[in-house]
Amino acid sequence: MSIDQLHTTLERLCNLLRVEAREHGAGNGLLPVQLEALHYLGECNRYSDSVQGVSEYLGQTKGTVSQTLKVLEKRGLVKKLPDSNDRRIVHLQTTAAGRKTLDKVVPALFLIEALKSTSEAKIGQLTEDLKEVLRAAQQARGAKSFGACITCRFNESVEGAFQCGLTGEKLTPKDTVKICREHLFPDVDCKVS
Amino acid sequence: MSIDQLHTTLERLCNLLRVEAREHGAGNGLLPVQLEALHYLGECNRYSDSVQGVSEYLGQTKGTVSQTLKVLEKRGLVKKLPDSNDRRIVHLQTTAAGRKTLDKVVPALFLIEALKSTSEAKIGQLTEDLKEVLRAAQQARGAKSFGACITCRFNESVEGAFQCGLTGEKLTPKDTVKICREHLFPDVDCKVS
DNA sequence: CTTATATGTTTCGTGTCGAAACTATATTGA
DNA sequence: TCAATATAGTTTCGACACGAAACATATAAG
């Protein structure tokens, strides 16, 4: 069956990503899962940069994630900031060192090399197709979509400015391309708590 | 950059595969990496079903793989057979129970669900595109290609029958679709030792 | 005000993973 | 021919991811 081959190919690409992350991370004293957490923190917005957010994204327990983040903090790659409204919440921001590490690791060298002679259009098309699969996959698993605000049903555009309909806060253009744990696509059944 | 998004999307799909493998494996008392090894053994040919083969495929050391396979054997999912010519080599064959376990796990349920309303043609196109990326990625990493004999430069077709030019052995039609650790694409520089 | 819920941490047991030492068999080459 | 070398695989050990569960604290609900 065709899906079988798709699964196998994806699984194999996964493996290469992990092996490269392991090799590359070893140079920085980091493990694959720690790089993934750092990657997430580098792309998520201020509603999502918490232990809980990372936990949901990686599909691991809070306890496990807590330890992962402790390592990242000790390495000086992320910085903990208390939330101003809710004192239970801790925000995790990537530091300059963290972003520098990320730049070295993503996108993976082998991907750049592999796509060297592939047209920009082709890469774009493949990316869009994969994103569509991911969107459907996350829905199928009941997982959150972790999309950018710009594609979110809660995003409201008023007089050229953006605003989150869930929190009521204003969003800068930069904000709207970051990923959010409350993200919902417009066409998906509403599941807000 | 576009490759950046491709990397992120792939990494996220990876995660879903692993999380699902963890959940599903837990039911069978197996871990993601053990399922991957079983998956490989279910699809590779008789030149590749060894500890060394799994080690190359998963990018892990022989020692680690040796332990992984010990678990699979203890669970009755694979069976060890000595090689008839070289007594150093152990062949690992999936048992009926192993194949039954595989059928439940691959393709992943969420992939089937996610692609339910996608056309066969679209899935096929995406699979081919990903395979092409994988091929280039493996070459970029200097990793083996693990392709099917039918696409291998060593495969020789004589009077409708197939034969491996490397070992000189005859290949049945079933053999030619299994993946091989000696596989090389026709257009790649020769690196046979 | 009491109970329930949510965020995050710590502890502990299981088990992956790589490194390295080891056994056994096969190959090479002088 | 036989010693040196290479290859397949196992075992041992230490580091550490990971989940489960107990815990601390803060907010929400009734």
Percentage of residues in helical conformation of chain A: 40-55%
* Termini gap of chain A: 39 Å
- The oligomerization state is homodimer
The low-confidence parts of chain A are 188-193
What is the chain-wise order of helices and strands of chain A? Answer: HHHHEEHHHEEE
Mean pLDDT of chain A: 89
Pairing-aware structural class of the strands and helices of chain A?
A: mainly alpha
Give a quick account of the main beta sheet of chain A: strands, pairing sense, barrel closure. 3 strands, antiparallel
Which pair has the most extensive contact? A-B, 57 and 57 residues
Total beta strands of chain A:
5
| Beta strand % of chain A | 5-15%
Description:
The structure is a homodimer of 193-residue chains. With 193 residues, the first copy, chain A, is mainly alpha-helical. In chain A, the strands form 2 sheets. Chain A has a 3-stranded antiparallel β-sheet with strand order 3-4-5, with no helix packed on it. Chain A has a two-stranded antiparallel ribbon with strand order 1-2. Chain A has helices at residues 2-28, 32-43, 51-58, 62-74, 96-105, 109-114, 120-141; strands at 78-82, 90-94, 155-158, 161-164, 170-171. In chain A, β1 (78-82) and β2 (90-94) form a beta hairpin. The radius of gyration of chain A is 18 Å and the shape is globular. Chain A is built from 7 helices and 5 strands. In chain A, α3 packs across α4. At the A-B interface, α1, α2, α6 and α7 of A face α1, α2, α6 and α7 of B.
